[in-house]
Automatic annotation (TrEMBL):
EC number: 3.2.1.23
Upper taxonomic lineage: Eukaryota, Viridiplantae, Streptophyta, Embryophyta, Tracheophyta
Signal peptide coordinates: 1-22
Name the record gives this protein: Beta-galactosidase
Ranges where the SUEL-type lectin domain occurs: 749-837
Catalyzed reaction equations: Hydrolysis of terminal non-reducing beta-D-galactose residues in beta-D-galactosides
Protein family membership: Belongs to the glycosyl hydrolase 35 family.
GO molecular function: beta-galactosidase activity; carbohydrate binding
Family annotation (InterPro entries): BetaGal_gal-bd, Galactose-bd-like_sf, GH, GHD, Gly_Hdrlase_35_cat, Glyco_hydro_35_CS, Glycoside_Hdrlase_35, Lectin_gal-bd_dom
Keyword terms: Glycosidase, Hydrolase, Signal
GO biological process, one term: carbohydrate metabolic process
């Protein structure tokens, strides 16, 4: 428990955030001190490149409305410096504008420069050209690396300084981070790792930004850099320096998703429990990773095999909709914690255990006025009753924390969710008719690679990152000459030992040791097979003809690795192989040192890999009979944007695997044929007990990702163009554009609270109440049932309060339902299930009704 009170003055300053004057950011073990005000900070991660500029303000406002004080983001080096000393800060890479919007909203910012980001982002945020510098070693005491890291860090710091982003200059940024989770892997880097961390701290501190630097998961963070915790729970974490505040930079709100996996969920109750426990044990700053996960547009997803959606089951969903009840439940928790802020940040702490130690009361008593603030936790899997004598008796649900204002009034229980659950659906907008999309197609020209002709040659199997600089997922490896050796023994191939009739065909096995993600193999122009996994040995029978045979291997990356010790050095592609031919008597011919011919990327990707048009050569879009189920096919269609303002998705059901673009903007990789294991979604989700990523799974047996976000700003009012490249074969006939909308909402609130219901859109109204019961209703959203008692006015009271409105609130009290004081049990509650529908602007009657409300 932190008890030290030594403040470290970092910057002197006056005035408050929001104005243009400088703010002092100081800290001690119990508070972040901004302009002399002692604070606890509730922060949330929103990564600027995972949404669009047009979405930023709305996301930030929703975070603010959810009780968030600060927005945290990484900086993504490979996005900003795609080629050495060529920088890009345009569009959604304009991090300065992002932080300006954070400030406009009156929030603080946390700038995680890294520049290693991890973040399930391609290659952890490192540029691949960096890897290709001879002699470089990442994240260790290597001059070349340190030099590049310092150059980039300085560039970012200078941009931030120039825009006056640091709180010391009047900006929003109160903390900055150098490196990232290095402590998790440092052991593998030996002494060089230790000196590297010291250098990082020194280099960062010398940037003189006027606000504190942090390092996460770094138990030896050199002072004055503060070490912080990442994880699902950080209650037992202690900073290495007794004067450092306890900060949790990554409390995982859910988990990311990989192709072929089920959807992980973390319950609102467990997340709230973890946060409340952190503050119970002296936490000062905590950050939700992620508060909005968003989308891995383009080729930004890491992994390998991270999906395009980076929803993360965060409080704001991928599209920016409120993920309820998580968003609202945390909002209530934040409000409760803030009521204790003054006490928590300058107090004396005492802890008492109850119920065989399962329950723990932590009492904070203000050093200023003696005011008290308590956390009463229960880490057992069963409910407990705890008697605090003169402070009252409390029912403490299993695996929960109750927050007691004045230590005698429960203002929040992490296990009692009093907010609505929203079921968000993808559907056609009510005003729209289904569009019949008409498609044209073009085959990716692959004759040249199938004939073994590339752009450059080498007598070895080159590592893929070295060959492509990661400017594309695709690399062709081709060889033909050595096949001649096989069938012409006089060409002095020493390996050739097959007792062969040189004029006959021969059955052999092609064997490829593969370090990439997806391999397509062709022999003499025919695909002989494809396979995907985390590195594997590909083995397929091939019939070699007499004379020259051509082996063409297309290696495809699906996100470069982003985590682990030396992850940057992991080979990609065929990388050295070996590639071998094995005959029936098991004689092996090693083709690894053959002359290999290479071609980087697809013809359709075009120059600079930003223009997607396979017909830029001689090919043409074909509008005749649609080619379906054939690999390496491009498709194009035009469409009208769905009505309204709700987020748009494209349903790519029927497509195989590839990449999608709308009006030239990449939506990311798609792969609907990759489905999740059909087993393991038992529908049960017990919030109790430690979170595991095998808990609370959904989407078993379905495509890992069927819908792809099309931000509204990608669309225009007239005709829009969708281009799809399908690498494995698909059928675009079922592709359609939909909106995401809150359709069914459920509320479940205890007596004494207020139930707020909202359709989460000004364009949707509550059109019907499917179920309402005040009493002891049973079941959950979608399957509520009447309990043993029910107020007869339940339905009419809720209808009266809500129908025709986009949101409504109901005081859950006996008065509201006109029942006697003797009605019901101790824990009366109200359960409601309502339907939201699109509000038609032409509908005068409903329009008037809505206006009046
Ligand atoms: C805490 O409050 C006491 C009493 O007002 C005050 O003397 C002390 O300076 C405060 N401590 C900090 C670190 O602000
Ligand atoms: C060699 O090939 C020729 C022509 O295909 C065939 O007639 C002959 O039987 C083959 N000899 C052997 C030993 O397989
Ligand atoms: C190759 O194998 C296939 C299937 O086992 C067989 O039908 C064919 O006759 C074989 N061809 C040669 C040339 O051995
Ligand atoms: C072929 O060789 C491999 C090792 O090179 C061995 O494991 C395998 O058993 C051999 N198979 C036959 C049929 O001899
Ligand atoms: C194949 O050749 C490569 C390049 O010479 C060599 O590194 C590798 O060890 C060889 N593999 C086998 C199985 O002989
Ligand atoms: C598109 O239509 C909407 C509503 O009709 C309008 O508000 C908006 O300005 C239009 N946008 C453009 C780019 O024309
Ligand atoms: C008004 O809205 C409700 C719910 O969406 C609908 O049932 C009703 O038909 C609408 N009224 C008119 C006149 O369209
Ligand atoms: C709900 O209760 C609050 C506080 O008791 C009161 O201010 C508000 O008017 C009530 N709302 C309704 C709709 O009864
Ligand atoms: C990095 C880190 O703290 N990881 C922890 C996250 O939480 C899980 C579950 O509690 C732990 O097992 C990890 O060690």
């Amino acid at each position: 428990m932190p008890v030290s009170w030594i403040g470290i003055l970092l910057v002197a300053g006056l005035a408050s955030i929001g104005s243009c004057s400088a703010a002092a950011v100081e800290y001690d073990a119990n508070a972040v001190i901004i302009n002399g005000q002692r604070k606890i900070i509730l922060s949330g991660s929103i990564h600027y490149p995972r949404s669009t500029v047009e979405m930023w303000s709305d996301l930030i406002q929703k975070a603010k409305a959810g009780g968030i004080d600060a927005i945290e983001t990484y900086i993504f080096w490979n996005a900003h410096e795609p080629r050495r000393r060529e920088y890009n800060f345009a569009g959604n890479l304009d991090f300065v504008q992002f932080f300006q919007k954070v400030q406009e909203a009156g929030l603080y910012g946390i700038l995680r420069i890294g520049p290693y980001a991890c973040a399930e982002w391609n290659y952890g945020g490192f540029p691949v050209w960096l890897h290709n510098i001879p002699g470089i070693k990442f994240r260790t005491d290597n001059e070349i690396f340190k030099n590049e890291m310092q150059t980039f860090t300085t560039k970012i710091v200078n941009m931030a300084k120039e825009a006056k982003l640091f709180a010391s200059q009047g900006g929003p940024v109160i903390l900055a981070q150098i490196e990232n989770e290095y402590g998790n892997v440092m052991g593998s880097y030996g002494e060089a790792g230790k000196s590297y961390v010291k250098w990082c701290a020194q280099m960062a501190v010398a940037q003189n930004i006027g606000v504190p630097w942090i390092m996460c998961q770094q138990s030896d963070a050199p002072s004055p850099v503060i070490n912080t915790c990442n994880g699902f729970y950080c209650d037992t974490f202690t900073p290495n320096n007794p004067t450092s505040p306890k900060m949790w930079t990554e409390n995982w709100t859910g988990w990311f998703k990989k192709w072929g996996q089920k959807d992980p969920h973390r319950t609102a109750e467990d997340l709230a429990f973890a946060v409340a426990r952190f503050f119970q044990y002296g936490g000062v700053l905590q950050n939700y990773y992620m508060y909005h996960g968003g989308t891995n547009f383009g080729r930004t997803s890491g992994g390998p095999f991270i999906t395009t959606s980076y929803d993360y089951d965060a409080p704001l969903d991928e599209y920016g909709n409120l993920n309820q009840p998580k968003w609202g439940h945390l909002k209530n928790l934040h409000a409760a914690l803030k009521l204790g802020e003054n006490v928590l940040t300058n107090s004396t702490v005492k802890s008492t255990k109850y119920s065989d130690g399962w329950a723990e009361l932590t009492t904070y008593t203000s050093n200023i006025n003696g005011e008290r603030f308590c956390f009463l936790s229960n880490t057992k899997m069963d409910d407990l009753d705890v008697d605090l004598q003169q402070d009252g008796k409390y029912f403490v649900p299993a695996w929960s924390v109750s927050i007691l204002q004045g230590c005698n009034k429960e203002i929040h229980s992490t296990a009692k969710v009093n907010v609505q659950t929203s079921l968000i659906v993808k559907k056609l907008h009510e005003n729209d008719k289904p569009q019949k999309l008409s498609w044209v197609w073009a085959a990716e020209p692959i004759k040249t690679p199938l004939h073994g002709r590339g752009r450059f040659k080498a007598s070895q199997l080159i590592e893929q990152k070295a060959a492509t600089n990661d400017e594309t997922d695709y690399l062709w490896y081709m060889t033909r000459d050595d096949s001649k050796k096989i069938f012409h023994p006089h060409c002095h191939s020493m390996q050739y030992r097959v007792d062969n009739n040189k004029t006959a065909s021969q059955n052999m096995t092609l064997r490829v040791k593969y370090s990439g993600q997806f391999l397509h193999a062709f022999v003499n122009g025919k695909e002989i097979g494809s396979q995907h996994d985390y590195g594997f040995t590909f083995e397929k029978p091939v019939l070699l003809k007499p004379g020259t045979n051509v082996i063409s291997l297309l290696s495809v990356t699906v996100g470069l690795q982003n985590y682990g010790e030396f992850f940057d050095e992991g080979p990609e592609g065929i990388a050295g192989g070996p590639v071998e031919l094995v005959d029936s008597s098991n004689t092996t011919t090693n083709l690894s040192t053959n002359e290999w011919s290479y071609k980087v990327g697809l013809i359709g990707e075009g120059r600079g890999r930003r223009f997607y048009d396979p017909t830029s050569g001689r090919a043409k879009w074909i509008s005749g009979k649609l080619r379906v189920g054939r690999a390496m096919t491009w498709y194009k269609t035009t469409f009208q944007a769905p009505s309204g303002t709700e987020p748009v998705v494209v349903d790519l059901q029927g497509m195989g695997k590839g990449h999608a673009w709308v009006n030239g903007n990449s939506l990311g990789r798609f792969w609907p044929t990759e489905t999740a294991d059909p087993n393991g979604c038992d529908g049960k989700c017990d919030y109790r007990g430690k979170y595991k990523d095998s808990k609370c799974l959904s989407n078993c047996g379905n495509p890992t990702q069927r819908w792809y976000h099309v931000p509204r700003s990608f669309l225009n009012n007239g005709s829009n163009t969708l281009i799809l490249f399908d690498e494995i074969g698909g059928n675009p006939s079922d592709v359609s554009f939909q909106i995401t909308a809150t359709e069914t909402i459920c509320g479940n609130a205890y007596e004494g609270s207020t139930l707020e219901l909202s359709c989460n859109s000004e364009q949707r109204i509550i059109s019907g109440i499917q179920y309402a019961s005040f009493g002891d209703p049973q079941g959950s959203c979608g399957s509520f049932q009447k309990g043993s008692i029910e107020a007869s006015s339940s339905l009419s009271a809720v209808e009266k309060a809500c129908i025709g409105k986009d949101s409504c609130s109901i005081n859950v009290s006996k008065t509201t339902f006109g029942v006697k004081d003797s009605f019901g049990v101790d824990n009366n509650r109200l359960a409601v299930q309502a339907v939201c529908t699109g509000y038609n602007e032409n509908d005068e009657e409903n329009h008037t009704q809505k206006k009046e409300n």
